[in-house]
Amino acid sequence: MRLDLSSIEDYVANHLRMFIISVAALVVFVGIIAVSVFFIAVRGEEQTMVPNVIGKELTEALLELQVKELYPRLHLRYSQTSRDKGLILEQEPKPGTIVKAGRRIRLVVSQGVIVNKIENFLSRNIDEVRMDLMTLQATAGGIPLLTIREPLMYEFSSENPGTILAQKPEAGTDISGPTSLEFVVSRGRENLTVAVPQLTGLTLSRALELISSTGINFQFIIRERSGNESGEMVVSQNPAPNTAISINTPVQITVTRPERMADNERFSLFSYSIPQNPYPLAVRLEALHESGARERIFTVNYMGGDFSVPYKQPVGTVLVLSMLNRELHRQTIY
């Protein structure tokens, strides 16, 4: 039997063509599936509108978010009234925003007021109470739940200056919202006198320490050295030592200039007029150096008025005057 070679070649060619066409079709089919899956993934989740849940109970807000396939991220905060407890105060994104399903929504939930009764402030120092109320406000997210009504009322008494003698509302009063506190504060004893300490003959640094501890009023004067006088020394004072004076009477203190200084140093008088206080308040003078270091020059309880203190500091130093940790004034040394 004789084989027809041309028929065999045609047969092989036809099957090879069919195989190539089948492979190409399979590749195209797989490609179509891959592209479809890609676009489905890119399209992502279904979009939805953020509902308005501000002012609603937490449970109600969660149910509304669940219906929209949105998820909460909760933040707790104190508010101004106990009636807000458990309610939604804020939300982010805002109501009406179009987002993808599955998005997390930030909800701020009220914990109510941080305190619910007025505490007993009697016999406490007014400055300490101020600091406590500032801390309370910071803890409550900046909401001034309790404030002090100004100006304060002052009375002379045997209690230390700054001591709270009376308060309104009274201790134990319920709080339902922002409340203003009225205080009567001690000015200390009327016509209080103090003995003038021995300052003449002391170095300036030692004299400042003694003034700080005794709490006397003071007024510094700087003059050039004379004869064998040393530099930065107290050479005179008025009134004389051991004189009994009113707490408000200033003692004039004369100090000599330094014997020598570096070229970049200055010795001068820092002066500033501090508003009058009902009783002495903590005043602090510091030097802020160019390196960033802070140096205490003088600390004293001061009634107010003309405040003057000698200093010796490098050029470029910034002198900072503060009262009750609140900056009053700063000046740069040139």
Topology:
Layout: H1 5-43, E1 47-49, H2 58-67, E2 71-77, E3 88-92, E4 98-100, E5 104-110, H3 126-139, E6 146-148, E7 153-155, E8 164-168, E9 179-186, E10 193-195, H4 204-214, E11 217-223, E12 234-238, E13 244-246, E14 250-256, E15 265-274, E16 281-288, E17 294-302, E18 305-314, E19 318-323, E20 326-332
Parallel strand pairs: 2-5, 6-9, 7-9, 11-14
Antiparallel strand pairs: 1-4, 3-5, 8-9, 10-13, 12-14, 15-18, 16-17, 16-19, 19-20
In short:
This protein has 334 residues and is of the alpha+beta class.
Descriptive overview:
The mean pLDDT is 87. The radius of gyration is 40 Å and the shape is elongated. The N and C termini lie far apart (123 Å). Helix content is 22%, strand content 36%. The strands form seven sheets. Strands 6, 7, 8 and 9 form a four-stranded mixed beta sheet that branches. Strands 17-16-19-20 form a four-stranded antiparallel beta sheet. Strands 2-5-3 form a three-stranded mixed beta sheet, covered by helices on one side. It contains four helices and 20 strands. The chain is an alpha+beta fold and 334 residues long. The longest helix has 39 residues, at 5-43. Strand 16 (281-288) and strand 17 form a beta hairpin. It has helices spanning 5-43, 58-67, 126-139, 204-214; strands spanning 47-49, 71-77, 88-92, 98-100, 104-110, 146-148, 153-155, 164-168, 179-186, 193-195, 217-223, 234-238, 244-246, 250-256, 265-274, 281-288, 294-302, 305-314, 318-323, 326-332.
